[in-house]
Inverse folding.
C-alpha cells in the first residue's frame, strides 16, 4: 500500500502555486478545473477546500493540510498610559418586534421608529443619552433576519449589548443570533425583558429559557448575567436598566486616547440631495473636527459639516461619539475604518493605494469549495436572474445584496448582482438593466419621473420596496417563475393484453384484464413486452361489456382504444402501465 504524501498549504493558494506544490504542470491542473466547471487562470486563487477536491479528483496520493496563516485583521490601536475614561458604546439587539426601538424611544424621549418602514429598524442608528451626568452611546440595530450583517457589525462596535426579549414571546431566532454576535465581539450582555406590562408576560419563562438553553444565568439565580424587567410602553424600570448598563461598563474600565489623530468606523453612508455624501461615523480615539481630511477605504474627503443624531452642529467629537459628516467625495463602504490625513493630497494618495489593493484582490478572487461543488452539480440549462440593487444607505445595500445571494435554487436559477449603488435610481442603472431576466430593486430610494419614463421605454422592470423581506419575497418569486416546471408521473394501474381486435396506423383496439389499480380513459400508458418498454400510447376510451366506462378496476376485463404516433403491433401478453404526466410548478 502506497503511503500518502502530506502537503501543507495556506487557506488560499493560486493555481500556479498549487501545481508547483503538487509537481504537476499548470496545464494539467487548469484542465482538471475546467472539467469541473471552472475556467481558471494561473493566478486564480483557490481556497483550501477546493484544492482538496481537485487533489481527490486527480486521484493523487496526496493529503493536504492547512498551514497556519497570518491573520490579516484590523490593526487595533494600542492605548497609551494617558488614556482616559470614555462613554460606553451600547448596542440594542434582539428579535424583530420585541421592542428594541420602542425601548430607545423611552430612553431618548423621541419616536425613532416613525422613520422606519413597517415599524422595523432597517439601519444602524446611533444616539447618545445622559444618565446621572454620564454619557452613553446607543446603537439601534435591525432585528429582521436579513440584517444579520448589520447586527454583527453593530455588535463588533460595542462594549455592552442589551438583548431585548419580549416577556410574552420568549427567545426567538434573532435573539439567539444576537447573543452569538455579542459573545463573538466579547461584549458584556445585559438582558432587558420587555413588555412586562402585557397580560401574557412571563419574565420567569424568559429567564429559564436563557439560562437553560443559552447559558445566561440571572444574577438573582446566582448567575452572572444582569437581567432587568422593563416596559418601554410605561417607562417602568428604564432608569434601572441604564444604571445597570453603566455599572457593567464600569467593570470593563473603558478607555480611549484623546491626544491622537481621530480614528473610528463608518456605520452608515448615503447620498442626500443638496448635501452630497452624508456619512455616519463612530469616533473611537482622538477628536474629530470640521476641516479634518479623512480617508475611509477607497473614499476620502474634507469634513464640511459635522452634526449629532439630533441634527445639532458639533465643533468637536471625542471618543465614543457618533456623528454625521459631509464632505466625502464618494461614499465609503459600510464598516470601513476612517483615519485622519494631513492634507487632501495625502488623503487622495492613501485612498488610491487602497483602491489599487482592492482591485488586486478582486482580480484574484477565491473560488470556494462551495462554488466548485455547485458547478460540478449544476445543470447546463440553468437560467440567470440579474439584479441591480440601489439603496438609501451603504449598510442597507450590503444587507440586501447579501440576503439576495442566500436565496437557494438548487442550481437551476443563478442570481447575479450586476450593479449596486447608494442613492436614487439613475438612467445609468436603466441602461445596465436592459438584458433578459433583469430587474432593478430600489430599497428606500426614489425613481425620478424622467428615469421612470426611460424604464418604460426600454421595458426595464423597476421594483421599489421599503421593507426588506418584501423585496426578498419578490426576488424569490421571480426566481421561482424562471424554474423549469417539474414533470410528475403518477401511476394508476396495470393491465395484461388478452386480445388485439384491430390495428390501424395510429390506433389499436384491444382487450385485457386489469392486474392492479384501475384502467381509465384519457391517461397515458407504457407498453411493455417481457419487461421492456416498446411504446407509449394514449388511452382514449375504456369499455366494460361493450359499454363506455369511467374506470375498470383490478380483476375486471375491459376493452380499450389506444392512440399511437406510429403503427403499433400489440401482442397478447403485453402489459400496459397506466399513468398520468403533468407539469408542476417548482417552488424554492
Amino acid at each position: 500500500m502506497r503511503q500518502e504524501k502530506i502537503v501543507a498549504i495556506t487557506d488560499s493558494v493560486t493555481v500556479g502555486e498549487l501545481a508547483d506544490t503538487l509537481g504537476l504542470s499548470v496545464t494539467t491542473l487548469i484542465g482538471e478545473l475546467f472539467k469541473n466547471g471552472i475556467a481558471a487562470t494561473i493566478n486564480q486563487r483557490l481556497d483550501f477546500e477546493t484544492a482538496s477536491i481537485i487533489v481527490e479528483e486527480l486521484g493523487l496520493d496526496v493529503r493536504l493540510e492547512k498551514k497556519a496563516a497570518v491573520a490579516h485583521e484590523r490593526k487595533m490601536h494600542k492605548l497609551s498610559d494617558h488614556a482616559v475614561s470614555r462613554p460606553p458604546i451600547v448596542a440594542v439587539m434582539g428579535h424583530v418586534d420585541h421592542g428594541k426601538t420602542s425601548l430607545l424611544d423611552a430612553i431618548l424621549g423621541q419616536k425613532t421608529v416613525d422613520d422606519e418602514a413597517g415599524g422595523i429598524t432597517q439601519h444602524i442608528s446611533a444616539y447618545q443619552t445622559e444618565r446621572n451626568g454620564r454619557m452613553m452611546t446607543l446603537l439601534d440595530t435591525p432585528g429582521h433576519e436579513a440584517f444579520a450583517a448589520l447586527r454583527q457589525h453593530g455588535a463588533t462596535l460595542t462594549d455592552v449589548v442589551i438583548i431585548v426579549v419580549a416577556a410574552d414571546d420568549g427567545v426567538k431566532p434573532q435573539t439567539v443570533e444576537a447573543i452569538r454576535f455579542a459573545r463573538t465581539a466579547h461584549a458584556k450582555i445585559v438582558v432587558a425583558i420587555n413588555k412586562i406590562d402585557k397580560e401574557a408576560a412571563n419574565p420567569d419563562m424568559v429567564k429559564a429559557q436563557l439560562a437553560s438553553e443559552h447559558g445566561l444565568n440571572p444574577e438573582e439565580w446566582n448567575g452572572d448575567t444582569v437581567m432587568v424587567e422593563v416596559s418601554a410602553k410605561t417607562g417602568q424600570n428604564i432608569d434601572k436598566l441604564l444604571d445597570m448598563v453603566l455599572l457593567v461598563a464600569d467593570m470593563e474600565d473603558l478607555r480611549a486616547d484623546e491626544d491622537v489623530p481621530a480614528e473610528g468606523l463608518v456605520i452608515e453612508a448615503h447620498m442626500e440631495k443638496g448635501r452630497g455624501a452624508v456619512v455616519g461615523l463612530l469616533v473611537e480615539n482622538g477628536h474629530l473636527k470640521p476641516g479634518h481630511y479623512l480617508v475611509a477605504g477607497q473614499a476620502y474627503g474634507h469634513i464640511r459639516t459635522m452634526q449629532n443624531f439630533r441634527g445639532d452642529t458639533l465643533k468637536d467629537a471625542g471618543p465614543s461619539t457618533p456623528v454625521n459628516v459631509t464632505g466625502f467625495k464618494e461614499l465609503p463602504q459600510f464598516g470601513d475604518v476612517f483615519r485622519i490625513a494631513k492634507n487632501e493630497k495625502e488623503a487622495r494618495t492613501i485612498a488610491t493605494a487602497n483602491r489599487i489593493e482592492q482591485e488586486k484582490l478582486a482580480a484574484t478572487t477565491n473560488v470556494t469549495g462551495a462554488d466548485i461543488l455547485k458547478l460540478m452539480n449544476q445543470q447546463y440549462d440553468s437560467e440567470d436572474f440579474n439584479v441591480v440593487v440601489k439603496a438609501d444607505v451603504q449598510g442597507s445595500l450590503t444587507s440586501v445584496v447579501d440576503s439576495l445571494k442566500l436565496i437557494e435554487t438548487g442550481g437551476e436559477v443563478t442570481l447575479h448582482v450586476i450593479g449596486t449603488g447608494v442613492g436614487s435610481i439613475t438612467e445609468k442603472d436603466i441602461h445596465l438593466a436592459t438584458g433578459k431576466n433583469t430587474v432593478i430593486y430600489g430599497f428606500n430610494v426614489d425613481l425620478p419621473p424622467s428615469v421612470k419614463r426611460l424604464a418604460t421605454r426600454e421595458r426595464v422592470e423597476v421594483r421599489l420596496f421599503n421593507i426588506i423581506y418584501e423585496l426578498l419575497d419578490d426576488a424569490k418569486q421571480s426566481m421561482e417563475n424562471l424554474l423549469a416546471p417539474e414533470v410528475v408521473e403518477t401511476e394508476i394501474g396495470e393491465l395484461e393484453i388478452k386480445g388485439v381486435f384491430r390495428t390501424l396506423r395510429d390506433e389499436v383496439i384491444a382487450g385485457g384484464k386489469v392486474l392492479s389499480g384501475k384502467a381509465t380513459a384519457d391517461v397515458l400508458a407504457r407498453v411493455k413486452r417481457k419487461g421492456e418498454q416498446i411504446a407509449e400510447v394514449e388511452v382514449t376510451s375504456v369499455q366494460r361489456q361493450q359499454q363506455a366506462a369511467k374506470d375498470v378496476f383490478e380483476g375486471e376485463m375491459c376493452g380499450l382504444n389506444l392512440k399511437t404516433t406510429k403503427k403499433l403491433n400489440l401482442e397478447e401478453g403485453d402489459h400496459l402501465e397506466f399513468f398520468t404526466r403533468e407539469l408542476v410548478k417548482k417552488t424554492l
User: Anything to note?
Assistant: The first strand starts at residue 5 and ends at 9. The chain has five domains: 5-66, 89-253, 263-362, 377-482, 486-584.
